Amino acid sequence: MSFLINLLGIYGGDLKLKGGDIICESLLKEGVDVLFGYPGGAILPLYDALWGYPQLHHVLVRHEESAAHAADGYSRVTGKPGVCLATSGPGATNLVTGIMSAKADSIPMVAITGQVARPMIGSEAFQECDICSIAAACTKMTYLVMSAQDLAPTIHEAFRIAQEGRPGPVLIDVPRDVQLEEAEFEYPELLESVTPSLSEDTLEQLRKAAELINHSERPVIIGGHGILASGATKELVSLAETTGIPVINTLLGLGGFPRNHRLSLGMLGMHGMYWSNMVVDQADLVVGLGMRFDDRVTGKVDAFAPHARIIHLDIDPTRMGQNVPVEVPLVGDAKPLLQNLIPLVEYNERPDWMSYVGSLKEDHPSLAIPQSDTLQAQQVLKELNEV
Questions:
Q1: Which of 20, 162, 276, 380 meets the CB 3.0–4.6 Å disulfide criterion with 46?
Q2: Class of domain 200-373+376-380
Q3: How far apart are CA 204 and CA 121, in angstroms?
């Protein structure tokens, strides 16, 4: 269908498309090339339109919840917003668990659901469901699009909201007759994102953070999912190597710091390493980057890092002081904040602290290998981890 748009762009003329085609064209404009979904009556016009868009690869799942989880996983791997499709009623509600997972883990996602035709809304029609109200608690925004003319600007706004600030899911509900309605297609201009310069207040907070780091005797860095979401893995490595501070990761932060790095202490929390938890327990400074200090990390909050002052960097201001008291809050994207923090910090060997950390790792190996004349599973895992 895009070839028609190109021709009309060359020769001129008013372009009217059905709502389903407008959705497809809008997705292409946003750089989407993969969709996950399961068809049903209320979203069939969109599926009919998809036949004309081979550039949009549709992955047919066997349950709508799988579509949401697949879109979530696709986003985690590619860094692009995941897109999932479902019909009205049970199709839409089946998405909710996957949408909530994306919300909790700050994953950008756009869910598009079918809805009964506009004249039938409010009549308790077959598979009618107010999915916007249901999904309001687990999305950044929901839309019920009542005109084909509104589809393009709504989709454009949805993708912007899904990706800006703390990322998350957005849901767009489209009545069946809107998918069939014709309207002129004109997509809003895609603007390049510009990273704003840091305010003087933020720079002052960075100076306070650097002062704490430079004068700490037992510091530790905790890297979370925000490091990966920001693309700040190199900055995290640079911060650790510039200061000589060991790094721990949350579960979602794994991969944000090389596990084979001499300063890596693996994962902390309920399912983490013994030594990681003990290091936090004895630290005098905790630098939390792109993480939320949730209960799986802290355990009993009033016993978490009892000797430590806390620096907390996160893009979401509502997280500051939400679970633990914070000495220096740093609100913003991890990458530019770390880039501005690194020149302010200094290297410190801290021999007593690093000796303590090393002794913990030596005395409490994460993978004990039983003494045996036969091959043990633990030995196999150890060798695989070192490949």
A1: 20
A2: alpha beta
A3: 53
- Fold of the CATH domain 14-184: Rossmann fold (3.40.50)
Domain ranges of the chain: 14-184, 200-373+376-380
pTM of the predicted structure, to 2 decimals: 0.84
One fold for 14-184 and 200-373+376-380: yes
